Amino acid sequence: MRNRFVVQEHHASRLHFDFRLELEGVLKSWAIPKGPSMNPAEKRLAVEVEDHPLEYISFEGIIPAGNYGAGAVVIWDAGEFELLEMTTKKISFVLHGRRLRGGFVLSRLKPRGKGTAQDWLLIKKNDEYANRKWQIELALTDKRKKQLEERIPPCETS
Predict the structure, then answer these.
(1) What is the dihedral of CA 97, 101, 103, 4, to 10 degrees?
(2) CB neighbours of residue 40 within 10 Å
(3) pLDDT computed for residue 157 by the predictor
(4) Could you report the per-residue pLDDT of 32-91, keeping only the tens digit for each?
(5) What is the distance between the alpha carbons of residues 50 and 10, in angstroms, rounded to a whole number?
(6) What span, in angstroms and rounded, lies between the C-alpha atoms of 152 and 107?
(7) How many C-beta atoms surround the C-beta of residue 38 within 10 A?
(8) Residue 14 backbone dihedrals phi, psi, to 5 degrees
């Protein structure tokens, strides 16, 4: 069975990438500080965050200052995925995106303590799509940011 996925490049207080898988009627979500990688040797920290509604899969725009996550959000990659395995400790899947392709696994780390976000590792499987020379390229250009800013009406301040 194929479901959708999206990776949103999020220029908030710190640049990170929001990795979202359509599972169980919502977008299961992780914040990846360094972004995903096609290099199997690079295990990327993926901090589990709250589930998001399915409508968020196509979100691009500017989250206004003063709001949680304020900053520019653009779709960095999107496509479909095949779920291979899902347990409480591991999610294994195959991505069919523009940038991310092939097998990946999200592997859960030991909890840091009560009330803290759950840490996972996003790991690229060593398959025909693996690229040991992988370098992430940002999608938000000055031109794209200007387009996003022009689409959104200015926020009123009180």
Answers:
(1) 0
(2) 18
(3) 42
(4) 999 999 999 999 999 999 999 999 999 999 998 898 889 999 999 999 999 999 999 999
(5) 16
(6) 38
(7) 19
(8) -135, 140
Residues 6+ apart with CB under 8 A from 74: 8, 9, 60, 139, 140, 144, 148
pLDDT at 116: 65
The two structure tokens encoding residue 14: 């710190």
pTM of the model: 0.88
Q: Which helix (H) or strand (E) holds 50?
A: strand 44-52
Instruction: Please give the structure tokens belonging to residue 75.
Output: 């779709």
Considering only CA atoms, which of 95, 118, 122 is closest in space to residue 107?
122
What would the two tokens of residue 99 be? 């940038």
